[in-house]
Amino acid sequence: MAHQSHLRPDSARIGTIDFPTVNRAALAALPALLGRWLPDGKKQGHEWVSRNPKRGDRKPGSFSVNLNTGRWADFAEADARGGDVISLAAYLASVTQYEAACELAKMLGLKGGAE
């Protein structure tokens, strides 16, 4: 059997997930998700502004999520930023983006996610 280095060792077991579909569904549900994940935040224009729960943030302001696109950033930490809801979920839960996508797919009731 030929070695296939592009596959994760557990890829046959974990299946695949449709990241664009999960991201679209998560973006549609983003206000509800943010209310759960960042409950001390509030909507300011097209942004959800809150404290970053992953560091000792004392007041809201430097951590925000764009409600239209899902892009997010902690402007106090250069490497804390991402372009979509899956990356935000992964960051907040300290899991891989694959794991975050699987969890979001389940949470949102999507079929055809990871098997």
Automatic annotation (TrEMBL):
It comes from the Bacteria. Residues 40-64 are annotated as: Disordered. InterPro entries: DNA_primase_Znf_CHC2. One of its GO terms (biological process) is DNA replication. Gene3D superfamilies: Zinc finger, CHC2-type domain. Residues 40-60 have a biased composition (Basic and acidic residues). GO terms for molecular function: DNA binding; zinc ion binding. This is DNA primase.
